[in-house]
Design brief:
2 strands; 61% helix; two-stranded antiparallel sheet; mainly alpha
């Protein structure tokens, strides 16, 4: 069963899945299931969350929802450990925010053809922490949705544990 955080919809049964079905089963994307992300989720689940909600918002505003879904799924397609990278960082070395965006973009381009729009979305999803500014409306949307999903991934499990503790 494939779902986004705070959604009850089965994602394999709707138009969203048509946009990402060729990517989601790939070995590289599936590897993300083994990496913890934002404390209580996996990098795979985070990417699905960003992908799905970016798709929904872009569709609502009649923007390129297909590219948003694809870029959202691939925006964190990197495999190094962020904590190790930051601990061993030397002067002049790119920040994690910049490095992982560029690495995810390179990995995405190895996996599939990415459009200029998708490249902008993946490379700049950490704006304003990184430069330059996004070129497209869809890039601003994925940037906002990425932060929104990070907050949900951090807070929702805590709220669920709190509620479960109250009902005992």
């Amino acid at each position: 069963m494939l779902k986004a955080i705070c959604s009850s919809k089965e994602l394999t049964d709707n138009s969203y899945y048509d946009c990402v079905s060729d990517l989601i089963g790939s070995e590289q994307v599936q590897e993300l299931k083994n990496i913890t992300h934002h404390v209580s989720t996996t990098r795979f689940q985070h990417c699905v969350n960003v992908s799905y909600y970016s798709y929904i918002v872009c569709r609502k505003f009649k923007l390129n929802a297909r590219s948003a879904a694809r870029a959202g799924l691939l925006h964190d397609l990197f495999f190094y450990d962020r904590k190790e990278y930051n601990a061993s960082k030397i002067k002049g070395q790119a920040s994690h925010s910049k490095k992982h965006s560029m690495e995810a973009c390179a990995n995405a381009a190895e996996l599939t053809h990415i459009t200029c729009l998708e490249r902008d979305m993946i490379e700049k999803h950490m704006w304003p922490a990184t430069r330059p500014m996004p070129r497209y409306k869809e890039t601003y949307i994925i940037t906002i949705i990425d932060k929104y999903c990070a907050v949900l991934e951090f807070c929702v499990p805590r709220v669920q544990r709190f509620i479960a503790g109250k009902t005992r």
